[in-house]
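Hello again,

I reread your note about wanting to compare the complex against the isolated chains. To keep things tidy I'm splitting this into two emails, and this first one only covers the full assembly. Below are the input lines as submitted, including protein chains and any nucleic acid or small-molecule components. They are followed by the predicted structure of everything together. The single-chain runs will come separately.
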Amino acid sequence: MYRSKIIAGIEIGTSKVSVLIGEIAEGRSLNIIGLGQSSSKGVLKGDIVDFHEASDCTHAAILSAEEQAGVKIDGVYLAVGGSDIEGFSSEASVNVTSDSNRVTNEEIEQVSGMAKAREIAEGRVVIHHLRRPYRLDKRFVDAPLNMEGDRLEANYWTVHGNARKIGDAIHIINGFNLHVDDVVLGALATGSIVATEEEKRMGCMVIDIGKGATDFAVFQGGRCVLAGCLPLGGDHISNDLSIGLRMRLKQAESIKHRYGSATVEHKNKREKVWLNNDFEIGDRPVPLWSIEKIIELRITEIFQVVQKKLGAYGRSERLSGGIILSGGTSKLRNIEACSEAVFGAPTRKGDNSALATGELRDPQYSVVIGLLKYGLQYQTTGDEMEGRQSGLFGKLKRALSIG
Amino acid sequence: MARKKAAEASRKTNSWKDIDQDVKAKSISKTAFKRILLSRCRAVGAIVGAFLILAAALKLFVMNEDLSVSLSKAGRALPVKSILVESDALPRDWVLEYLDLSGRELDLLGLDIGQLKTKLESHPQAISVEIARQLPDTLFISVNEREPVAKALAEDARRGRLTLLVDRYGIVYEGIGYGAKQIKSLPYLDGIRLRRAEGGFEPLIGMEPVANLLSQAREIAPHLYQSWKVVSLVEYPRLIVKSGFVREVVFEKDESDFRRQISRLDYIVDYYKSHAYSKVAKVDLTMNSQVPVEQSLVARR
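Full-complex prediction:
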């Protein structure tokens, strides 16, 4: 007998903390039952800089989501990002030793283990091992079992982060007496919801541009092969506008939302818009061209940095499925055109209509919805929650113990 | 060997899963502390609630045991002191005799009510029966009976000539408890064929129009109905009524037209009586526009 399980996707972002609660019924279907949000405090460019403030706003969002859903959360899927997230490629190879030259299960396990075994620096922890296609005698194969060949090679993209920073995020959740079931890179979670299976198979990239950081994930052959994070986001655009046009950060944020465009639409430099638009003392006209130009330059730079990080994976012929933009900053006008100009690949804005309706279709919720889908997939494969007790006694035990 | 080494090396690699998720009390926020407290209170409440429910269930079980003991004691001390019978014609004594309830001590709770009801309902005169225990010592029997509309004669090898009653649905039965005056007022049925069935006779088909004619005559012209002796179905669907003043009245079996036919008959009877006729041989009401009247040869007084 399978009981329903309540999971939560939590994103502790630079601008806000989002908590989405889903009920996994019969281990197969996901119902979204609660949403909680709070303004983020103690988080800078995706990194936690004040544990207590970050705890307070995260716990408030969790409590709000639980109250809306009317249930207690069983497990958490936590999105991570931030400036310290890095990745590297590691390879290993073995000779196929069986008499018939056919690849055995043991050989696959051996080569995978060797590829994942590369040591990482002190103070770093692995978040994901993303497997790329195997190579059997230089041929790319997805499942080499029983295939004939002499040499089998495995290649993994290992995503790792600062142990203390990830530990801080986990401990914030633990502080609410909740257990983190899995830690997922934001872009990976977003990719699972905004990119279609066909796009992932053809080769596509998901870029999640948040307020303080930008996550990206490249999918090829239906799986994620590269993922990373940049400490650049919508905040930088506001900052540029504030400095370039001599205005306060709040005014720059407002101007960005009202008139922002990722490409220059208004060529006439005399065309101006009012800064506050309230006709009060201090209000002044600002050239529209300048606003758009500043935004265009910064967005282009963000995309160029992403492209640089991708290396060969960033070539347009390897992204025939296109680029899918998500996150709050992706709501900027003409951002698709800017992306197409940099990457040379078709670009669209992602939406969450596959799993969500109404308010939740907004790209700012892609990460948390993606986390729930990630959780559903784990439920289906059944390899999480080792050692956790379910049922009445499990609940009682969890309720009566703090740790 | 190489595989073992790879596995060992893989284990050495730090994973986020190695991060200790044990909660230190000082890292718990106020909100979380409240939630934990509430959660603990609920858990304790659930345990206490479960204990109380268990205790209540146990108490109920014990009480139930006591109740069943007292009920069985009471059952032995509930003799039937009176039997109330509610019926139209069936006499109380006959009902008690038929149900084998007379002349013996009865236990109110020991009586099989269902069996008694089935037995009484099997008698053709009863349509439905209700039997109920009225604690502490009374048995209540209510019988809903058939209403006879005519009577029929039958020959029985053992009992000789029998007068049977027929209700509006053609059910034929030996009437029990009816007064002689009531039976005498019913007209005889003629031209019918009674067929024996298990425990009585088969129902007569097509009896409803006859019942309607008789009930309407009783309502509209009771003075005419009183003189109706026989209703003959020999020429069915034409209904022939034999009476004192008019020897034969022929009715059309059109139920919606009975009222008009009876009114016409009433007029004709009045007319001939006022002209000092003592008898009329035949009145045929089956023709719409005309009514042939056959006068008796010795009609005029």
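For quick reference: Chain B touches chain A at residues 2-3, 6-7, 9-10, 12-16, 18-19, 21-25, 27-32, 35-36, 39-40, 42-43, 46-47 (CB under 8 Å).

B.
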